[in-house]
Amino acid sequence: MDNNFEATEKRILSVFEHAGLKHVLSMRKLAGDASNRTYYRCYLDNDKSYIVMVNAASDKAIVSEEIATHTKDFNELPFINIQRYLTRLGVRVPVIHHRDEKEGILILEDLGDSLLGDIIKEKGPSVKLYKQAIDMMIRFQIKEEQIPRWCYARLNRFNSNLYDFEFDHFIEYGIVKAGVQLPPNVMSKIQRLFHRLSVLFERYSAIFVHRDYHSRNLLSFKEQLYTIDFQDALIGAPHYDLASLLRDAYVELNDDFVDEMVEYYLSNSPYAAAGFKDIFTLISIQRMLKAAGRFRYIKLVKGNDKFMQYIPRLLQRVKRLALSYNSDPPLEILAETIERIPLSEQ
Questions:
Q1: Residue ranges matching CATH 3.30.200.20 in the chain
Q2: 113 Cβ contact partners less than 8 Å away, ≥ 6 residues apart
Q3: What is the reported pTM?
Q4: What is the pLDDT of residues 310-321, one digit of tens each?
Q5: Could you tell me if 219 and 129 are in contact, meaning their C-beta atoms sit under 8 angstroms apart?
Q6: Is the pLDDT of residue 62 over 80?
Q7: How many whole angstroms separate alpha carbon 195 and alpha carbon 112?
Q8: Delimiting residues of CATH 3.90.1200.10 domain(s) in the chain
């Protein structure tokens, strides 16, 4: 048995003992995502199972491994704080059965393995499920001033500095460390474009944003969608989670389906406004570039290359959207830059 797994198993068993949930028959580590958290499914002798979240020892930040604008020392894990807030809103999230914050371990409700992304890959896009996801998103899209002060989402926001950080992350890992040497004049144009977009996006930062609202963080359980991995919530733009959902790195949704779901959102959201679709397109591009840079970072820094397969699709989408975008600012320089990145070597 792996020594790290054996040590973690002992910690988990101790937490179950203190929670009064004895007789754990077995546990298995679940496939990980890109975070510092690990997950296990534990089976008890009463035919019940639980999901265990094991947080990294230092996982007190709202924005894990990324820029944050606050210095507050949190009194509780962000997952617990945001879970409590979403529960009060009536958003479907996993129940926390027990918490041991000293160990950084949470025992959660087991919602099964039916990720939206897996359902889509098996059966194709579902209007019903995506409308459920959009309805849930609209429910938690609360204006900043209406969010209670104890909610950690209020402590950080998508401002121009954070957008610049994510764009720079793409430049470093999506361009430079992909082996592309841009001419100085092209690099300068790209940097000016990205900063212009960052300043533009900041104007819309006014509501609760999940920040990772996509098909691998939505679970179908008893015919209802639940959302997970919400601990990095912050104040941002209403377009952001919609872009995360509909321009998802992990599934392919055709343009007609995306347009239909955007129209559904606009017909039900209080944030429908002139120009919404243009900002949605631009934030979609930002989100996809951030993901492409992040995926290469995970390979180069963490030694995990399983997300690299999604980069070509992301960049091809960005190029297509950039070429078809006919509003201000012009995006031709972005399309030209993407053209320089060798997709076959991802």
A1: 3-109
A2: 219
A3: 0.92
A4: 999 999 999 999
A5: no
A6: no
A7: 42
A8: 116-345
Determine the residue type at 54. Answer: V
Helix (H) or strand (E) holding 207: strand 207-209
CATH value of 116-345 in 3.30.565.10, 3.90.1200.10, 3.40.190.10, 3.40.120.10 = 3.90.1200.10
Report d(CA 1, CA 166) in Å as an integer: 38
Using 50, 70 and 90 to split pLDDT, how confident is the model at 175? very high
More confident residue, 182 or 66: 182
pLDDT, average across residues 322-340: 96
Mean pLDDT, the chain, whole residue set = 91
Which tokens in the block code for residue 318? 């960005």
Q: What is the pLDDT of residues 105-126, one digit of tens each?
A: 999 999 999 999 999 999 999 9
pLDDT at 1 over 80: no
CA distance 263 to 110: 33
Cβ atoms 218, 226 nearer than 8 A: yes
Fold classified for 3-109: Phosphorylase Kinase; domain 1 (3.30.200)
> Six-digit token pair at 184?
């100085």
Dihedrals phi, psi of 99, to nearest 5 degrees: -135, 140
Which amino acid is it at 264?
A: Y
> Cα–Cα distance between 130 and 122 in angstroms, integer?
15
Give the type of residue at 86.
L
Residue partners of 36: CB distance under 8 A and separation at least 6: 55, 56, 59, 64, 65
The whole-number pLDDT of residue 273 equals 92
* Beta carbons within 10 angstroms of residue 31's beta carbon: 8
**What's the alpha-carbon Rg for the chain, to the nearest Å?**
21
Q: Where are the alpha helices (DSSP H) in 152-275?
A: 160-169, 184-202, 238-246, 255-268
Instruction: Compute CA distances 207 → 92, 94, 151, 184, 316, whole Å.
Output: 19, 23, 13, 37, 30
